[in-house]
Structures are given as C-alpha cells and as structure tokens.
C-alpha cells in the first residue's frame, strides 16, 4: 500500500464522516435529498463496478431492489432488521449468480433486454404468489427513522466504494480490465472469463437487494408495482453513465448533480416537471458526451499551466 | 381453435407494437426508448379525430402516417444523426441512444400531458362481436389484426423486392459491407427510422380502438416491443411477426388452460428460454 | 378538449400570478399538494384529485378566502408532481413542509403513496385527511400516526357490501347462486378479492370462476371467455382503470348474460358512462353518491364550470369533502395545526356528502360502498350510514 493510497483512504473516511453528520443538521428536507443521493450512489456505483469494465448494461436493478424490499416486508415482524439486510444481500447475490451463470455469455444488447425481462418476471412471479396465498397489502410499520436509513445507506455506499477499491487492486479487477479490453485475449491468457463476470455481477445484485431492504421501512407500504418499478433500473443506468462508468467515483459525480437538478426542476416547475427533465437530459447528453467525468477532465486540462494561453 | 384465433389476434396487436421498433433498432441501430410514446401519440391523434370529428381511425392513419414519418425523419436528422456520427463503436452508439431517447420519452410525455392532460382516454369503435369458426371475437381487434397483416405484408414485400428495401436489409445484416458497395447508409438509416416511427404511430391509432391509454402508458409498450424484437431477432421482419404471434398464442394458452395470472410470467419465461437457447433470436443471424 | 386545454392554461396562468403576488402578501394560507401528474396513477389523479384541489381553491378565493379569527385569508396552492413514485412523494412533502412552509398539505393520491407520506406528515405535525387510501389497516395506521384520518372507507366494507347486495338480490329471487370473480393482481385487487371470497362462501354462494390477471394485461378476452363458460349468474371484477374498460367491452362482445355485473376502479368515472352509454345501465361499481342531493348537484355543476370536466361518482366528491373539512376546521380553530388535528378528531363537518365525523380510529363511518349506473347516472345503492340509496336494478343485457 503506497502513501497515496493511505492518503486517499483517510480522505475518503473523512468525507464519509462528514456526510454522516448530515442528519444532525436537523433539516429534514436536506436529509431526504441526502437519502436519495446516497441510495443512488450505492446503486450506481455498484452497477458501474460490474458494467464499467465489462460494458454490459444491466437493467436488473429493480429486480434485486424489489426482492430486498419484500425480504423486509415479509420478515420485519419476526426477525431483527439487520438480519433482514443480510438475508437480502445473500438472496440478491444468489439471484445474480443464477442470472449470471445463465446469461453472461449473451452479447451486449441481448443482456440488456434479458435483465429487463428478468425484473418483470420476478415481479410477476411474486405477484402471483402473493395472489395465491391471499397475502394482503404489506405494511412495514417500524420506528426506524429516516436518519437511521440514511446512516445505513451511507455505510452501504462506503462499503461499495471499499469493495470497488479492493476489487480494482485484486487479481479479479485486473482480469476484468483485460476482459473489457478484449475478451479473446483474456481467454487466451487463461482467465476464467465466465467466473470473473459472475462473481462481479453478484456485487450489484446484493447491493441493490440490501438497498431495497433498508428502504422498505421508508416506503411503509410494499406492493409489486412500486417495489419493482422499472424506472429505477433506468435511473441507475443513466446516472452512472452521466457520471462515467469507467472510474470508481464516476457514478458519484453523476448522481449528485443529477439529483439536485431533478430536485430543482421538480420544485420550480411542478406543471412541466417531466417535460423539463427530458429537456435537461437531452442537453446533458449532447453537451457532455463523455459524462461529467469528461467535463472534469476537460476543465483540468484547461487549467493545466501548459494551456495557459487558451484562457487568455 | 378459439384459443388459436384469440392468440393470433393478440399476436397482431403485439406485431403492431413491435414492428416499428424493429426497423429503428435493426436498421438505424437506435434502441428507441421513446417508441411507446410515439405509439400513445398515434392513439391520441386517432382519439382526437374520432371524438372531435367522427373520423374513423382507419382513415386517420392515412393522415397520421406521412405526418409521423416526417416527424421521425426530423427526430433522426436533428437528434440522432449527430450521435451516430460521434459514436466510435457500436457500444458507444447504444449507450448514447439509450440516454438520448430516454430523454426524448420524457419530453414526449410532458408534451402530451400539456396538450391533452393526464386523463385516461378511450372510445368505442367497432366494439361489436363477430363470429369466426363458431366463436365470437371483437370486431375492432379483428380489424386491427387485418391492419397489422397489411402493414407487415407491405413491409415484407418492400424490404424484399424494392431497391431501397434491399439496401435496408443489407444494412441490417452487414452495415460496414453495405457502405463498401455504395449504399448511402446515413440516408437509409434515416428512412428506416422514420418509417419505423410511422408504423408505430399507425399501430397506436389502431390499438386505441380497444385499449385504454393515457399520457404515461408509453413505457409499457416500449418494454413489450423491446422484448418481441429481441425474441424475433433484430432487423428481421419475419422474426418479429413470428415472435409476436408466438407470444400472443402462448399468453392466450396459459390464460385459458392454466391461469390468467401467469400470462406475463409465461411470456417472460418464453423470452428468457429463447434467449438462452437461441441468443440471436428466432430468425437472427448467428454473430460471427 | 380545446376548451379544457384553454381552461387549464388559464388555471396555470392564474396559479403563476397568484404565486407571484402571494410571495408579497403575508395574508394567504398556503396549501401544499403532491400527487401524480405522470406515471401509472396519473390517469386516476387527473379525474379524482387535481380538479378538486383546483375547484376548492377557486371557490374559496371567490368567497374572499377562509375566515381565520375575523380576517378573510385567501388560499394559495403549491402543487408538485410525485411521478407515482413513493420516493418522490416523500421528497415533495418534505419540500412542502420545510422549504415552502405551507400551512396545510392535501393528502397524496393512491394507497401506497399516501402511506409512504404519512411519517413525514406526522414528523412535521401536519394532519393528513386521506382519501384515496382504502385499507383495513386503519387502526394500526392511526395508532402509529395519530393525526391521520380516513374518509373513503375500508377494504372490507367495500367487499362486504358488494356481497351483501348480491345476497339480497339472491334472497329476493332475482339472482342465482353462481358467482364469477376475477381480480387484478396488485395489492388493491388481491386484498379485495381475498375478503370477498370469504364473504361469498359465508353467504352460501358458489364461486364458479375465480382467477387473477396481471396489471397491464392487453387482452382480457380469455378471462371473459372463461367466466362465460362457467355460466355464472353474477360477475364481479376487482379491477383497475384500463381493465375495467376492457372487461366491460369484452362482456359486451361475448354478450355475457348475468343478472349482476360489477367492475371496480373507474366504473364511477364519467368516461365510463360516456364510453358505454346505454350498455352501462345496471353495471355496479364501488362508491356511488346520492345524486338527488342538491348539495351534490351544486358541486357537480361547479366542478364542470370551473375545471371543464365532470366529477366522478366516488372519490371526487370525497376529495372535495376532505378539503371542506379542512376549511371548516381552520375556520373553527385557526391555523394552528395541532388544534386543527384535535378539532378533526372531535368535530362534525358539513360536507357535500353530508355530515362527516371521525371515530376512535380516525375513520369516517359514513361512506358509500356500492353504486350502479342507472339511466346515465351512477347512483349509490349501498352505503354505511348514508341516506339516499336507491334500489338496485337487474343487469338486463347490453343494449
């Protein structure tokens, strides 16, 4: 471990610590925005851990998320909450492993649509079971506060970053980078590409399930159409891509401005929220072709002393 | 027999939903997430003409087709062509077009909301029974099935007989080689995209005779269309038709013999099975 | 359609102007409202929720405002679109409470979204007069959120009264003993079907067809064919808006001959009557109102003049009544939210639906449960503690 690494770790821990103070500010409004940001950070970063190196676009986030919310909804009366998060993590990872084993040999776009279909399939099956068993609406009435949820999600996001950092330094991360560059080369150099991809796919699967489990008390009422809303999968993809999926902190750079933009449009233009969100979106896509990371790189290059004359 | 006809009628509905996207995705390489909104817009137009002027949806489509063709041509030229030009790889274009058309779908929902409001809309058109082979079916479904047959048939013949059609197929199969033999890929991709948009809007007008729509329902149709297109094989008209009909029959079989609650689960299972055993789709070419 | 667009535009314009001027005047009462304008529930909210908020605000301001301790204070509505997403509902209510610092907040729309918002209402001490949240969990919810009130009734009452109407018809010799029941496989449909199934069996009915179908099914003809093949005497569907229309249309196509036909959400919508015309005659659905009550007639006329659309015959009037309750409570005790909540618990309110008060579970005990289309109007045929129910008629073909 080099000195830079230690410095980065310390800085990250410090940043995390500062973020953890947010609920103490007493503003419920900023806390609720904080929850949204942290939730999408965990989801988008874990998504990019898999999709960044492999270039597979997964739309299965809603499936894992929904499974997680149902774990909490069904178990919160009998089991302690922390164990539910654990169960959700295991279920999410198992589901991801199953899907991964079956599908990761599919090439790009087929995988995209497959994961989309998967989310719908899981939702249909759960709905059907709920209907058969005559399960009534599921209410998660707990005394878990929004601050608790925020802290749990923050811890989860921290763990995702740590995992991402560790994976990046491990043999697995190295293997994945080779796969991303050229899968044939990877196979020839003796990398078990299928296994590497499946292992990595389990990360977003279990993170999304845990996020769902943690957020269930916030939603209170759990029903399939809300828990498995396909919009979530798209939002995660879009935030990650806007930030830049190639780097560990890329999605974070997408999530924060995007959430704030979304919030300011929702609050300032209640009549045309959807229309303006769409317009804002298009502007970003066309003006920032390489995501916010690309923009930051550009600014960094401009401010570099060599290009001083460009500023004159 | 009853199940088969009901299933085929539903398959016709699905073919209308998916055919446009197949052209857009298979040829123009744009995974158009705003496809469903175009369909709802077509439905809106038919609704408006019917309730406002008592004009039959089957006449509206002749006005709708050129209008939406022009609109989609513009969308491609203004919005999507820059993306195609700047994309270095197929993957890059896919990512960019997902982002751009996702934004477009929001814009379209917003516009429809502004113009028409958020209510449900539907109207009663040809809601009469018709007897085929001893069983009763809804006339509007039969009529729109015939519409689907005409549209799909015309597309198939056009793609297989006419020169631009053959060029379009060439692009779908091998975009790089097509350029080498002197095909203007950019122009034809725009044509395919515009044509796809027009087919989708016309499909929406036909579907509105028996489906209840509102400004926000587009996404449901987009999801269904994506699945059918992938199932059938990208860029192949026959594949989409067969996949749509197959899906219709399977859903009806399950609904009638097993449990209507499992229809969608069965549809997705079928989809997943096809992908697992024939990843390129029913009629897709094996990737080399 | 054109007129409505123009009206909407005018309303939006009026809202912007009122927002602009409202910032200066401290004498307005700020009312927050967050409900779907987009997403899966937008269609229902566009009929039952938004027009009533608009109507009520317009009427209050026309009168010069709400009388708060002798001064007339006009109301100013701040609206947000929650996109039918509980996360957005939570954020919007937070924003209303802490950023816009509104005086009161109108209930969101749809059980899931209302309940997701309930903790925020509770945290900031806003009373929540829920309308479109039908549930049997009222005791548990009002225990957890003491300032949450319910107006539209319970799942059980809705299902029980439907069964009771059919039982009365059977005992009167008008109806056979065979029931076909279907439901949409979503929380609402599942819950109602579950209660109804038990009650039908208890009443000695034979359920000859019992199935569910997924949300968003595009072809319900297999369902209707299955139901018809079972030769039922009554057909009951716990359905959502698109399938309510589709099931009715299929019943007409199949010429389903039953003595009683029931579909759920959207049956009381004016669009339903407009779509099916005479064929709708005899169709039953949830809700209903006393259409002969001059108060309702006056309300319906004002609704049409101001919003350009007719109210539905179920949640519309209740949504409006919930706002009347709020208004009367403010007039009685002022803008203090705690006082208003306490007043809600104890008072009786004179609304467009008649008097409303809340019991120990914060539940309104007087509401309509079953209505029926009769000669182009959706009349209440069964209720809990409401007057004016008309006798139920037989479903006599689809002509």
Question: How would you describe this structure to a colleague?
Answer:
The complex is a heterotrimer of chains A (312), B (288) and C (399). Chain A has helices at 3-20, 28-54, 61-75, 81-103, 108-132, 146-169, 171-181, 183-188, 193-219, 224-227, 231-243, 250-268, 273-287, 291-303, 308-311, and strands at residues 138-139, 221-222. Chain A is mostly helical and 312 residues long. Mean pLDDT of chain A is 83; it is low at 307-312. With 288 residues, chain B is an all-alpha fold. Helix content of chain B is 75%, strand content 3%. Chain B contains eleven helices and two strands. Chain B has helices at residues 2-26, 35-53, 57-86, 90-116, 139-161, 163-173, 175-180, 185-207, 218-232, 237-258, 263-277; strands at residues 129-132, 135-138. Chain B has a two-stranded antiparallel ribbon with strand order 1-2. In chain B, helix 3 packs across helix 4 (90-116), helix 6 crosses helix 8 (185-207) and helix 10 (237-258) packs across helix 11. By secondary structure, chain C is of the alpha/beta class. Chain C is built from 14 helices and 16 strands. Chain C has helices at 2-22, 42-48, 50-62, 86-99, 111-123, 138-144, 155-171, 187-202, 221-229, 241-254, 270-276, 294-307, 315-333, 337-346; strands at 29-35, 66-68, 71-73, 75-81, 104-106, 128-130, 148-150, 178-184, 206-213, 234-238, 260-263, 283-286, 348-351, 354-357, 367-374, 377-384. In chain C, the strands form five sheets. Chain C has a seven-stranded mixed beta sheet, with helices on both faces. Chain C has a three-stranded parallel beta sheet with strand order 4-1-5, with helices on both faces. In chain C, strands 2-3 form a two-stranded antiparallel ribbon. The relative contact order of chain C is 0.12. Mean pLDDT of chain C is 90; it is low at 1-26.
């Amino acid at each position: 471990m080099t000195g830079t690494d230690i410095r980065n770790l310390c800085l990250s821990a410090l940043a995390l610590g500062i973020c953890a103070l947010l609920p103490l500010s007493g503003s419920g409004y900023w806390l609720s925005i904080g929850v949204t940001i942290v939730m999408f950070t965990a989801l988008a970063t874990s998504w990019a851990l898999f999709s960044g190196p492999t270039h597979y676009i997964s739309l299965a986030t809603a499936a894992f998320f929904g499974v997680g919310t149902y774990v909490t909804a069904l178990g919160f009366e009998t089991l302690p909450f922390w164990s539910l998060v654990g169960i959700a993590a295991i279920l999410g990872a198992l589901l991801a492993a199953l899907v991964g084993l079956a599908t990761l040999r599919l090439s790009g776009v087929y995988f995209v649509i497959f994961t989309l279909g998967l989310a719908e399939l899981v939702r249909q099956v759960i709905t059907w079971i709920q209907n058969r068993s005559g399960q009534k609406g599921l209410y998660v009435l707990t005394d878990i506060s929004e601050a608790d949820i925020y802290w749990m999600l923050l811890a989860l996001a921290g763990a995702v970053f740590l995992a991402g950092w560790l994976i990046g330094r491990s043999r697995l991360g190295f293997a994945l980078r080779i796969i991303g560059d050229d899968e044939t080369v990877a196979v020839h150099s003796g990398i078990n590409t299928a296994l590497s991809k499946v292992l990595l796919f389990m990360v977003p699967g279990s993170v999304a399930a845990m996020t769902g489990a943690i957020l269930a008390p916030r939603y209170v009422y759990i029903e399939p159409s809300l828990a498995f809303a396909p919009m979530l999968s798209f939002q995660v993809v879009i935030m990650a891509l806007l930030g830049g999926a190639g780097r560990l902190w890329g999605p974070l750079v997408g999530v924060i401005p995007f959430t704030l933009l979304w919030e300011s449009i929702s609050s300032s233009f209640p009549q045309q929220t959807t229309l303006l969100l769409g317009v804002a979106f298009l502007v970003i896509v066309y003006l920032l072709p390489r995501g916010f990371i690309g923009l930051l790189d550009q600014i960094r290059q401009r401010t570099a002393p060599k290009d001083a004359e460009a500023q004159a | 027999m009853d199940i088969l006809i009901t299933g085929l009628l539903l398959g016709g509905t699905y073919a209308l939903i998916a055919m446009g996207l197949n052209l857009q995705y298979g040829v123009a390489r744009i995974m158009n997430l705003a496809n469903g909104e175009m369909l709802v817009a077509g439905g809106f137009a038919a609704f408006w003409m019917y309730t406002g002027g008592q004009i039959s949806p089957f006449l509206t489509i002749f006005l709708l087709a050129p209008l939406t063709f022009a609109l989609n041509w513009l969308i491609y030229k203004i919005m999507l062509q820059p993306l195609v030009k700047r994309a270095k790889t197929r993957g890059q274009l896919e990512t960019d077009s997902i982002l751009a058309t996702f934004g477009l779908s929001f814009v379209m929902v917003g516009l429809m909301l502004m113009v028409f409001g958020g209510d449900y809309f539907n109207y009663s058109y040809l809601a009469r029974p018709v007897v085929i082979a001893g069983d009763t079916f809804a006339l509007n479904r039969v009529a729109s099935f015939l519409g689907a047959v005409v549209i799909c048939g015309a597309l198939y013949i056009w793609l297989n007989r006419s020169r631009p059609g053959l060029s379009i197929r060439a692009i779908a199969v091998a975009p790089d080689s097509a350029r080498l033999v002197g095909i203007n890929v950019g122009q034809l991709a725009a044509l395919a995209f515009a044509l796809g948009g027009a087919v989708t809007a016309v499909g929406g007008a036909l579907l509105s005779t028996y489906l209840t729509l509102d400004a926000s329902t587009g996404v449901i149709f987009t999801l269904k269309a994506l699945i059918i297109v992938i199932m059938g094989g990208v860029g192949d008209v026959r594949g989409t038709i067969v996949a749509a009909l197959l899906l219709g029959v399977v859903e009806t079989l399950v609904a009638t013999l097993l449990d209507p609650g499992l229809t969608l689960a069965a549809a997705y299972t079928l989809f997943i099975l096809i992908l697992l055993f024939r990843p390129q789709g029913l009629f897709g070419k094996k990737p080399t | 359609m054109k007129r409505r667009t123009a009206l909407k535009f005018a309303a939006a314009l009026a809202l912007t102007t009122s927002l602009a001027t409202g910032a200066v005047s401290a004498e307005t009462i700020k009312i927050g409202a967050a409900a779907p304008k987009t997403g899966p529930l937008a269609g229902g909210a566009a009929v039952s929720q938004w027009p009533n908020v608009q109507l009520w605000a317009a009427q209050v301001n026309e009168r010069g405002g709400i009388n708060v301790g002798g001064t007339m204070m006009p109301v100013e509505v701040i609206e947000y679109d929650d996109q039918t997403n509980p996360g957005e509902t939570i954020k919007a209510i937070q924003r209303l409470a802490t950023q816009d610092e509104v005086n009161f907040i109108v209930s969101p729309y749809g059980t899931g979204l209302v309940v997701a918002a309930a903790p925020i209402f509770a945290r900031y001490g806003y009373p929540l007069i829920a309308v479109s949240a039908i549930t049997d969990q009222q005791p548990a919810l009002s225990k957890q959120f003491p300032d949450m009130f319910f107006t539209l009734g319970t799942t059980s009452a809705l299902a029980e009264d439907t069964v009771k109407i059919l039982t009365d018809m059977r005992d009167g010799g008008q109806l056979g003993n065979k029931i076909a029941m279907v439901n949409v496989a979503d929380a609402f449909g599942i819950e109602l079907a579950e209660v109804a199934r038990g009650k039908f069996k208890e009443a000695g009915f034979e359920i000859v067809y019992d199935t569910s179908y997924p949300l968003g099914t595009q072809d319900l003809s297999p369902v209707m064919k299955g139901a018809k093949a079972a030769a039922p005497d009554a057909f009951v569907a716990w359905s959502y808006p698109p399938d309510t229309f589709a099931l009715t249309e299929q019943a007409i196509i199949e010429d389903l001959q039953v003595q009683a036909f029931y579909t759920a959400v959207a049956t009381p919508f004016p669009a339903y009557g407009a779509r099916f015309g005479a064929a709708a005659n005899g169709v039953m659905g949830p809700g209903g109102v006393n259409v002969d009550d001059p108060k309702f007639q006056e309300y319906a006329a004002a609704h049409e003049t101001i919003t350009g659309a007719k109210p539905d015959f179920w949640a519309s009037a209740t949504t409006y009544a919930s706002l009347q309750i709020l208004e009367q409570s403010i007039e009685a005790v002022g803008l203090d939210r705690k006082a208003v909540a306490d007043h809600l618990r104890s008072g009786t309110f004179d609304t467009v639906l008649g008097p409303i008060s809340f019991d120990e579970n914060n539940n309104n005990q007087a509401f309509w449960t079953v209505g029926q289309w009769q000669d182009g109007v959706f009349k209440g045929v069964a209720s809990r503690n409401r007057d004016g129910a008309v006798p139920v008629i037989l479903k006599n073909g689809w002509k």
